[in-house]
Every structure is written in C-alpha cells, then in structure tokens.
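cron nightly-structures :: item 1 of 1
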Amino acid sequence: MTATSYRVAAVAAILSAATTFLLWLLPRLYASPQGFDEIVQLHQNSTYLARLWVNYVHIFFALLAYAATAVLLWRRSPALAGFGLICLLLWGFVELIGVSVNIFAVNSAWRAQFDTASPEVQAQLRVLLLGFPAVWDALFFVLLSGFLVGTFCFGVAAVIGDGLERWVGLLFLLAVPLTLAIMLGGYTSVTVFDAVVSWAYPALQPISRVVLGIWLWREGANNSFKPNPLRGSA
C-alpha cells in the first residue's frame, strides 16, 4: 500500500468516528414512535431517514479503515489479521443488507404505500411491518457476532505492538465487552449493563476510531512503498 492509501484509510477512520457519533445522536432528535400508526409514518421523518443513510455510508468508511488495519497487522499476525478482517467484512455485509432493506423495502415501499393501500393490501403490509423487527434482530445478532470476533482478533494482534499501536489494540479489546453487553441487553434478560452501554458507546467508539485514524496516518508514512533504487528500469 502507498502512503496515500493509508491516508485515505485514515480519513475514512475519522469519518467513521463522526458517523458513529451521529448514529448515537440522531435517534435522540426525534420522539420514539408509540404504536403501529406512528411507526408507519416513520418514512416521512427526515431525521430518521438521515440516520439510516448515515448508517449505510458509515459501514464503507469503517471497512476501508479496517482493511488498512488488517494490512498493517498482517506483518505480525497474519492469522488474526486475516480472520479478523473476514469477521468484520461479515459485520459490514450483513449490516448493509439490513439497512438497505430498511431504507428501500420497509420505508420507501411498505410504509409509504400503507395509507393509500386497499384494506386487503394493508393487512399484508401490516404483517410485513410487524415481522421485520424480528428479522432485523436476527441479522443484528449475526453482525454483532462478526464485530465481536473481528475486534477481538485485531485487538490481540495490535496490543502487543508499541506506542500508539498498543493503544489501538486496547481500544479494539474494549469494544469486546461493550459488544457483549449490547448482545446481553438485546437478546437476554440481562439488562444490568444497559446503563453502561448508554454512556460508554458514544465515548468509546468515536474515540477509538479517531485513534485508529491517527495510527493509520502515521503508519502510512513508515510503511509506504518506496521503489528499490537498485532495481533497473524495464
């Protein structure tokens, strides 16, 4: 990779920090829908739709940064770097699928058509709209699993490094218990960690991605491709 490639990945990491914060902030700018009728009208809520599009773009920023991270960590631990990237690609792919379905099927089609549809069609749309949250919960469990394993692998590979790389590793590892707490709160009756997640997530994840971006920028200068002066021209 060239220095420019690492710098692009570093900027992507910084942008993923900004989008992570927006994903936490935007849902707090509108009232949660109460009842089915308000849920149907979400397709008219510009802030809600903005959150979905931010989520969509966020994944590409994060994946670009993670790909560059895997290249750097490969030199020390190819197994952890490679498997970690595979798991994070799983996270990104599943979340892209879920968000795309939410944007185009749930909102642009089902919710948008509901008010003007015939009673028979409304009954069918109601089933789809009531069933989608369960489908999304299943997809979310898969993507959280990928994120959990991927950040653990990257963290273990990076934490044995020096300087800023060690901090990158520590921040990756801190994402592991945070992700576990989210999974416990969402899929079990264990909600004791929910309060911790509510304040730790908007602090830890943006900060960790900013630090990742700084590390990628610095490492790019040290690991960029430099032509061999002893090699003759073709």
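cron nightly-structures :: done
Confidence is low (pLDDT under 50) at residues 225-234.
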